[in-house]
Write a structure and sequence with these properties.
The protein is an alpha/beta fold. It has 2 domains: 238 residues, P-loop containing nucleotide triphosphate hydrolases (Rossmann fold); 71 residues, no CATH class. It has 11 helices and 12 strands. The strands form 2 sheets. Strands 6-7-8-3-9-10-12-11 form an 8-stranded mixed beta sheet, with helices on both faces. Strands 2-1-4-5 form a 4-stranded antiparallel beta sheet, with helices on one face. Helix 4 crosses helix 5 and helix 5 packs across helix 7. It is globular.
Length: 329
């Protein structure tokens, strides 16, 4: 088996709070379909990018995989084991193999703790068998892995004494200290200066190749996705609308939403100042999610009557899948 993670038809709906008048009506409960039937696979040693705009359900999907929240339905198979119903010690052991890098390095690190204690915290929770000295050595080794040197000096500092890029390296070191098999990276460079982003992406890529790590890399920025990813899934309104090898999807986008995302990428060319930016999307249209049919119907330039039915995610090219009625199944 070459898959580290498999999701099959995972769903998560959140109920919308109702007014007092609505509470007395029967069958009036409505939901936000944050994750609506997502299926995906991550191979060992590979990086799967999940890309989409804010509110598309990417972070909710990562939290479901980590079992921070429970899915309403569907299955999650990690390294050959269905972990969907794991509880107690089984769930705790599973989480030693899956770690998360959060988006904001300024809020994900406790300002009252030294870097040594921040990186050691997962070891204190999950690996109490080791002695204090062994845990310190693991922390220093993890700091060296992310190129925070001299590690002994960095370990004694507090987060406010470090730059944003250094803080994110600390967060990466904390995720590595348990030697996980899968890392969930939730927009890990979006809060950093542009000059620092390339360094962090290079570090993540180097760690993936050297330690044979698998990644679920969440982003809305397709330009960074291409550098790190092997496969990509484009997510919109809780659904994967296109997926496949990252070069194939980005060089030949099929779904209208993927095309609009690529149109939105700015290119640093002086002549672009004179050009009108054209994004293939209906301007001013509602972003309300229809309960049935294509979720992109109100913003799509090519919407048809048939789009009121649910399109299937089907293969249009080799290993390239799209959920759109433009392409006959």
């Amino acid at each position: 088996m070459n898959e580290i993670l498999q999701l099959d038809n995972v769903k998560k709906y959140f109920p919308i709070r109702r007014s007092i008048k609505q509470m007395f009506r029967k069958n009036h409960q409505s939901y936000v379909r944050a994750v609506d039937g997502v299926s995906l696979t991550i191979e060992k040693g590979k990086a799967l990018v999940v890309a989409g705009e804010s509110g598309s359900g990417k972070t909710t999907l990562a939290r479901i995989i980590l079992r921070a929240i429970d899915p309403d339905s569907g299955s999650i198979v990690f390294d050959g084991n269905d972990i969907t119903k794991y509880e107690g010690n089984k769930l705790k052991k599973f989480r030693t193999n899956v770690q998360m890098i959060h988006q904001d390095p300024y809020t994900s690190l406790d300002p009252r703790m030294r870097i040594l204690d921040i990186v050691m915290e997962p070891l204190n929770i999950h690996n109490k068998i080791k002695s204090k000295q062994e845990r310190i050595e693991d922390v220093l080794g993890s700091l060296e892995e992310v190129r925070l040197e001299p590690a002994t000096d960095i370990a004694e500092k507090f987060p406010n004494m470090l730059s944003g890029g250094q803080r994110q390296r600390v967060a990466i070191a904390r995720s590595l200290v348990l030697k996980p098999k899968l890392i969930l990276a939730d927009e890990p460079v979006s809060m950093l200066d542009v000059s620092v982003r390339a360094e962090i992406l290079e570090l993540l890529k180097n760690l993936k190749d050297r330690l044979k790590l698998s990644y679920l890399y969440i982003t809305h920025d397709l330009s960074t996705a291409r550098y790190l990813g092997d496969e990509i899934g484009i997510m919109y309104a809780g659904k994967i609308v296109e997926g496949g090898p990252i070069e194939q999807v980005l060089l030949n986008p099929l779904h209208p939403y993927t095309q609009a995302l690529l149109d939105a990428i700015s290119e640093p060319e002086p002549q672009n100042l004179e050009k009108e930016k054209i994004i293939r999307i209906k301007q001013g249209e509602t972003r309300d999610r229809p309960h049935t049919g294509c979720r992109f119907i109100h913003r799509c330039l090519y919407s048809m009557d048939i789009c009121n039915s649910d399109p299937l995610l089907a293969g249009e090219e080799d290993n390239h899948y799209v959920s759109c009625f433009i392409y006959p199944v």
